[in-house]
Task: structure prediction
Amino acid sequence: MPYAPADAHIHFALHPDHHSGVIATTSGPTADAARSHLQDLGWRSTSPTTMVLARIDREEPYYAATAAEQLHRYGFTVDIAPDLQEEIDTEWTWGNYPFPWCTREEVREVSAEAQRIHDDIAEGRLFIHLHAEDGHTTVAVGSYATGVRRHVRLHGENHLRQVVARFDHEAEAVADFQRLYSVAVRPGPAPLTDLERTVRQVLRGQRPAGHSADSIATAPAAPPVAALGEHEQFLTSFLEGNPRWEKYRTWRDETTIVSHESLTVRAEFDHEARHRTDTAWSMAEYNGPVGERLWHATLTAGTPIPLIRGLLEHLDTPSPARAGEPHEPLRDAGWHPASHPAWTTWRAPNRTIALDHVPHATDDRWVLYGGEDLDRAAWAIRLSAGVGHDVLTQLAGTAAALAEPPPAPARRATLVSQLPATAPQPRGRVR
Result:
């Protein structure tokens, strides 16, 4: 089947911070078409011109070669860096592989299935109920959102994770798992392996911890965090300077509620919140004094004061709505989006603050947080569906002002080699 001309260039190279990971750099008028195709093949965007492939089966060079061949066949201009080409030409084998009878193609099929399970868990399609340690590996039981016999028991980690049993009912799957592993059973998913953690960091555009000898010199700046007691002081000063807000205490001494005179906005402050994951503030806006709740938000104990002040002041006297999307202040400040199947992350150039947008979520549709990883965020602001673009734009502008981008590092030119017409004979090497 003939294809329309594709005026774009794609350069493939090894990831500088993650061995076996691959980066694709796109340019040209039809680069979006190439990026769309790479997205379908499992690549994830880390900037407007780059995409990354990181897998727990460490087969990135193989799949990068497959992607390069397909793009070349579609008419795109493709080249591959020499060091990546060497990885493609080298046929890796796993040391101490537990299924020695498998051919190389069968090993790749097992790893590909493990990758699919990993992606299903990471992207929320497979929910893990329980896990346990079984000797030197991990077992778990979980449920897919849809499908026949969608409740599964898993065995293994990383490239060896497999579905070993399927069930018609969740209760049956959980009971069988508890019968098999008894006191070793723990709630929820198991902690991420080092490889899983690294892969997720790379896919989010982050630099894995300890990636190089100069990691201390290039470590990201610490995110801004409110000091202990700073929220208390802010609440007192805010109420003194904003007479349209009324304060009253509830029957719980540790809680203060402030309500706007319009009776459409309300905030609750927990004086006992101390840990970075504790919810210190809860806010909500209503459709009239006795109307339904339009949206709600929670802010943890480390949230910087400028974000809280800006949010409350905007709710007190809303600024004129700006045309466009809430992330425009971030784009103007040099933040770049990284797209994933279920969400988009906007990250500051110095990686101190990020904004996640999960279009299909209800409670946490927008999450603004400090740090590189939401699982270990220094603070977080979670906003539900229904929040106005004016509120989001105000928060985005304040966040952009808090995060100052570092100087752009000098970039070194990378030598490239054209995609060969025929692949050379592979060489063997053990992982």
